[in-house]
């Protein structure tokens, strides 16, 4: 191939063949891309022979040989090529941790490498290509990242072929950054999502012809909640696609050519017929994956025959097949029963659910009745072209990508789509445009997918805090952990603690944090308790340790789905064993619930022993046992029986709760009526004891709660939560503040909470109660402020991470603050915090600002003698809002033209006085402003009892100008008594007074003193009152910027928001009148642009504060 021009198809052909040796790979891949002249052979140097200390680890890992076969000249550091032989007894995908440890040792001496992993016996055809790279050259071992392609027969190698072809096309300009780009999992995920989102938009449109009949009594309601049903369908199909990687589902049921041999009149491109979804996918979902091959009663998979009972786990649609019913059963015979509820048919039927009227959430029905327009009344229809249309069909899209069943980590990534993708797909599909509300659904839910690096860091810090933050505990989480026999007993105790931990994500979304916790706890337990069975370990942790709640039912379902995939990835198909050796998945309905976490059910004060009432306690224990049995129940009949018992006990509880009058009647009814098994229902309350049996609180509460202003949608959320007793509630606040307090309520004493949220609570007025709550009710242990660094790709909000314990404030918060200079720190937060941490004492509800020790010292000295700005007899106002700037704000030429058009000298004089110079935010500079040649037509609306409004009839030339904009000025909301007048402005006269002018949004925080009577637009604030020259000097000083700049929220791009609420509590020292007089003179010099006037002002302020020499140094040189 090396003499050929590389193409995607030739690359795909080579990469999907069995391993042919490193020299063949070099000939066919390396030489065409990098050039033969860039390759240097190293004669198969055997690393394990030269590094005997690595042999024990290699033997334990199953690595037989690591040969350094050559290197490529790619820049300062050559790119190494290693050939790695793996023992046939080892499964590479099951031994990732040990392989990673060995490769990390190898990479201690190199900055980048290509590694070819293959088995020693040619009968094992699958092989792997791995790119290892350490950014910044030969640095710390922990910086090494691995990117892997799975190759060989049976693997979809299109992604690998595309990426190698990308390198080939850039072969003349290749550098390390281009190689990194070619192995970017992020780029792959983005492209997949773009493809999938286009499909989703097509699917939810009327043009797709998809129908889910819903309520069969309503003829025109077939598109009710269509988005959620399509998302559910996508996730089921993607789950199947993932488990197909384990050969649990046959490839042929996705092959249009094969399908044409078993389905009648199958047209893969039909825009109306949906026999593929009905006959193949629905039967796979509901009749195969959700039904045992043979249950405990001897029942097998079969077609439904009874005309009265509509059992939802039996095959349907025999009439759609061209093969016999037995042949259809045989078609699905190699698919194991998975259980777990994911593929439970959600249709409500009379027999199974006892409902009066059928309701078709899934539309899996034998009833072929139709409405008058020909649509099925009970059956879902998804036309075949939605799946098989070339390039745009869902199966066509999925076939273009590599998938891996294992979740990637930041250190090791398969260049393929992993199960985390399900979370990203869910979060992003929620962002689909909703034409009815004119909002994105994501904005409504306030949810944003948390990046993997952030999840991993928060998971580690939370678990470390739970176990005890000491050197021993931190060593367990280190990438270079090594088992120490002397610590065996401590390892045992730690393992027991990890197996007992209770963790809640109160807004679990698609499961990023629960999955991160499961993977990390398992990884730590594998290190310190290596004899554990991973599947059993995961099952135990899922049942006993991890819990989640989310207000969106589809979110809880996707969380469950990711747990199912995690369990399956530790199983291997074995045709000789029952159910092909695949354990049935647990039922997670009582582990991840759909509920409003912020609403708690409170017992009446006089009833303090609700759950100690003997009869109620007995029912509670019975309910707990039933739900434990349901967790592992396998057959539909068993689950049905347990759910019936569950319902009977809940009905009994209604009576008991009502009889004893322990709760308000509505609350009692809601508690007892909560049905954990209804996958479409959302509980209006959350009670962990009632729902999970967790009575004494959680050890860890962790998550990324939603960010929604309570006053949105006419204050709907504010009304909902106002009477819930939250001390952090503020009508102008955000819902995440309530989640902080609710999380605290859900913790046991000494438990730990770790959230990533908007950072506005640190400084905003609405955050005052929240800051006070943290200072007085918690021990803030860790605070990372991502000021100006974008964390969420789909959100512009600035964020922070806060970790606190439910204990007394120790006044020692480890803090770190990122900015655009160190924005890459988010990729290795642990190292960044260790290197940049600052200890802060947050004791009050004042703004929380992260400062260095010297900056803290300076700020304390200022505040010790300072007075809050709100007590300085000053007023802060916004500039003039016209509602139509193009009409009311004019340039010099237009001003001259209007004055020239005046008919009399008196009108000319009046008009000249009416049209006043105006400054914008961008015009304000430090100590001054830029003349912009702009003017405001100040047709004010007057001040009641003081100043009459402007009568436009007194200004004919101005009226003629404004009449040209009549359509706009008459329609604007911001107008006075007439369209010609500006809106009411009670502080109009203050513009003529001496004042400080400053922009409302700014990077540089400039303040100008004005005594010329300038007006300002709405992009400015003005400050009037006393001591204005001194205040101008103070605000422009280095002292102010260093100590107080972080009191103002930093927006994207480093811009600060200088709103009034952030100014009022700033403490400013009052100084001697003589010094103030001197500073006033210096201010005049600064306004005139005299050299060093600003430095003289800073020096005078420093002297007033009696600062130490080192503090003066910081002030002089930090800004």
Helix/strand layout:
Layout: H1 8-15, H2 22-34, E1 39-46, H3 47-50, H4 55-61, E2 63-72, E3 79-86, H5 96-106, E4 112-119, E5 127-134, E6 144-151, H6 158-169, H7 176-182, H8 185-204, E7 214-215, H9 226-244, H10 256-259, H11 275-289, H12 325-331, H13 350-353, E8 359-360, H14 385-388, H15 394-399, E9 412-414, H16 420-429, E10 433-434, E11 439-440, H17 441-445, H18 452-467, H19 471-476, H20 488-500, E12 503-505, H21 512-528, H22 534-544, E13 546-550, H23 553-568, E14 592-594, H24 614-632, H25 636-660, H26 665-673, H27 688-692, E15 698-703, H28 712-721, H29 735-746, E16 747-758, H30 768-777, E17 779-786, E18 799-805, E19 813-817, H31 829-836, E20 838-840, H32 853-865, E21 866-868, E22 874-878, H33 885-888, E23 889-891, H34 892-900, H35 905-914, E24 915-919, E25 924-925, E26 928-929, E27 934-937, H36 956-963, H37 966-971, E28 995-999, E29 1001-1002, E30 1008-1010, E31 1015-1016, E32 1020-1025, H38 1028-1036, H39 1038-1044, E33 1056-1057, H40 1060-1063, E34 1067-1069, H41 1073-1088, H42 1093-1105, H43 1109-1117
Parallel strand pairs: 3-4, 6-9, 12-13, 12-15, 13-14, 15-16, 17-19, 24-31
Antiparallel strand pairs: 1-2, 2-3, 4-5, 5-6, 7-8, 10-11, 16-18, 17-18, 19-20, 21-34, 22-32, 23-27, 24-27, 25-26, 28-30, 28-32, 29-33
């Amino acid at each position: 191939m090396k003499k050929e021009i590389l193409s995607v198809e030739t690359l795909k052909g080579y990469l999907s063949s069995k391993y042919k040796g490193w020299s063949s790979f070099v000939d066919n891949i390396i030489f065409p891309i990098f050039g033969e002249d860039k390759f240097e052979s190293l004669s198969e140097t055997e690393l394990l022979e030269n590094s005997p200390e690595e042999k024990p680890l290699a033997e334990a890992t199953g690595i037989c040989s690591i040969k350094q076969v050559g290197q490529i000249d790619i820049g300062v550091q050559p790119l190494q090529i290693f050939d790695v032989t793996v023992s046939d007894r080892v499964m590479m995908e099951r031994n990732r941790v040990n392989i990673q440890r060995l490769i990390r040792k190898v990479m201690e001496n190199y900055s980048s490498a290509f590694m070819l992993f293959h088995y020693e016996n040619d009968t094992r055809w699958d092989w792997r290509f791995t790119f290892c790279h350490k950014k910044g050259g030969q640095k710390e071992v922990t910086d090494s990242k691995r990117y892997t392609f799975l190759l060989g027969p049976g693997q979809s190698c299109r992604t690998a072929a595309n990426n190698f072809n990308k390198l080939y096309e850039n072969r003349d300009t290749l550098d390390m950054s281009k190689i990194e780009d070619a192995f970017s999992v992020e780029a792959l995920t983005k492209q997949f999502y773009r493809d999938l989102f286009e499909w989703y938009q097509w699917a939810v449109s009327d043009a797709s012809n998809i129908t889910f009949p819903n309520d069969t009594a309503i003829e025109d309601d077939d598109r009710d909640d269509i988005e959620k049903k399509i998302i559910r369908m996508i996730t089921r199909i993607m789950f199947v696609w993932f488990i197909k990687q384990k050969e649990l589902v046959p490839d042929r049921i996705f092959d249009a050519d094969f399908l044409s041999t078993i389905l009648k009149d199958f047209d893969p491109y039909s825009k109306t017929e949906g026999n593929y979804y009905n006959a193949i996918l629905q039967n796979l979902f509901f009749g195969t994956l959700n039904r045992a091959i043979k249950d405990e009663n001897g029942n097998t998979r079969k077609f439904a025959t009874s005309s009265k009972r509509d059992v939802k786990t039996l095959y349907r649609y025999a009439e759609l097949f061209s093969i016999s019913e037995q042949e259809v059963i045989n078609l699905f015979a190699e698919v194991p029963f998975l259980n777990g509820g994911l593929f439970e048919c959600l249709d409500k039927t009379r027999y199974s659910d006892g409902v009066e009227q059928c309701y078709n959430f899934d539309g899996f029905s034998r009833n072929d009745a139709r409405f008058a327009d020909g649509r099925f009344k009970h059956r879902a229809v998804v036309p075949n072209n939605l799946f098989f249309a070339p390039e745009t069909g869902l199966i066509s899209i999925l076939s273009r990508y590599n998938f891996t069943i294992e979740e990637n980590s930041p250190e090791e990534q398969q260049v393929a789509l992993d199960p985390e993708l399900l979370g990203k797909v869910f979060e992003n599909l929620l962002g689909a445009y909703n034409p009815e509300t004119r909002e994105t659904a994501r904005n409504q839910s306030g949810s944003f997918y948390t990046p993997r690096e952030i999840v991993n860091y928060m998971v580690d810090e939370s678990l470390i805090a739970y176990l005890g933050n000491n050197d021993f505990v931190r060593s367990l989480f280190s990438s270079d952990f090594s088992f120490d026999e002397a610590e065996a007993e401590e390892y045992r105790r730690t393992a027991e603690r990890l197996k007992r931990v209770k963790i809640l994500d109160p807004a679990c979304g698609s499961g990023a944090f629960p999955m991160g916790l499961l993977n990390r706890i398992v990884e730590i337990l594998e290190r310190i308790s290596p004899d554990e069975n991973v599947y059993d370990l995961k099952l135990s942790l899922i049942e006993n340790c991890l819990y989640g709640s989310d207000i969106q039912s589809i979110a809880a379902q996707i969380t469950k789905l990711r747990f199912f995939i995690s369990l399956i990835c530790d199983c291997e198909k074995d045709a000789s064993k029952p159910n092909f050796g695949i354990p049935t998945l647990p039922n997670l309905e009582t582990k991840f619930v759909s509920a409003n976490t912020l609403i708690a059910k409170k017992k009446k004060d006089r009833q303090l022993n609700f759950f100690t009432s003997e009869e109620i306690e007995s029912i509670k224990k019975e309910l707990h046992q039933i739900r434990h049995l349901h967790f592992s129940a396998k057959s539909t009949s068993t689950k049905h029986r347990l759910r019936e018992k569950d319902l009977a006990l809940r009905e009994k509880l209604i009576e008991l709760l009502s009889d004893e009058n322990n709760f308000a009647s509505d609350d009692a009814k809601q508690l007892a009526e909560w049905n954990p098994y209804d996958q479409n229902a959302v509980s209006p309350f959350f009670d962990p004891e009632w729902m999970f049996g967790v009575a004494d609180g959680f050890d860890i509460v962790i998550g990324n709660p939603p960010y929604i202003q309570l006053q949105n949608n006419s204050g709907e959320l504010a009304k909902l939560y106002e009477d819930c007793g939250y001390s952090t509630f503020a009508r102008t606040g955000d819902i995440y503040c309530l989640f902080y307090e609710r999380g605290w309520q859900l913790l046991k004493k000494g438990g730990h909470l770790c959230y990533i949220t908007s950072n506005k609570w640190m400084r905003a007025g609405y955050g005052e109660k929240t800051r006070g709550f943290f200072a007085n009710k918690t021990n803030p242990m860790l605070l990372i402020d991502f000021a100006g660094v974008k964390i969420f790709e789909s959100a512009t909000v600035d964020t922070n991470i806060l970790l606190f314990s439910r204990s007394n404030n120790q006044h020692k918060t480890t803090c770190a603050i990122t900015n655009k200079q160190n924005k890459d720190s988010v990729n290795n937060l642990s190292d960044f915090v260790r290197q940049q941490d600052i200890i802060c004492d947050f004791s009050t509800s004042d703004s929380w600002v992260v400062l260095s020790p010297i900056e803290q010292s300076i700020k304390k000295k200022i505040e010790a003698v300072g007075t809050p700005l709100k007590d300085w007899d000053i007023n802060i106002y916004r500039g003039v809002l016209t509602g139509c700037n193009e009409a009311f704000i004019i340039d010099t030429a237009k001003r001259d033209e209007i004055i020239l058009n005046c008919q009399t000298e008196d009108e000319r004089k009046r008009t000249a006085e009416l049209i006043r110079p105006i400054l914008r935010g961008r015009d304000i500079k430090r100590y001054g402003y830029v003349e912009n040649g702009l003017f405001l037509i100040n047709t004010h609306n007057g001040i009641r009892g003081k100043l009459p409004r402007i009568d436009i009839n007194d200004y004919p030339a101005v009226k003629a100008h404004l009449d040209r904009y009549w359509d706009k000025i008459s329609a604007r909301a911001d107008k006075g008594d007439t369209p010609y007048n500006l809106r009411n402005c009670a502080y109009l006269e203050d513009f003529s007074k001496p004042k400080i002018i400053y922009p409302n949004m700014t990077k540089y925080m400039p303040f100008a003193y004005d005594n010329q009577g300038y007006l300002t637009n709405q992009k400015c604030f003005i400050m009037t009152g006393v001591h204005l020259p001194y205040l101008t000097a103070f605000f422009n000083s280095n002292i102010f910027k260093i100590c107080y700049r972080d009191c103002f929220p930093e927006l994207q791009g480093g811009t600060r928001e200088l709103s009034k609420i952030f100014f009022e509590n700033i403490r400013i020292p009052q100084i001697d009148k003589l010094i103030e007089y001197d500073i006033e003179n210096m201010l005049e010099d600064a306004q005139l642009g005299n050299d060093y006037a600003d430095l003289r002002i800073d020096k005078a302020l420093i002297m007033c504060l009696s600062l130490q020499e080192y503090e003066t140094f910081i002030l002089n040189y930090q800004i």
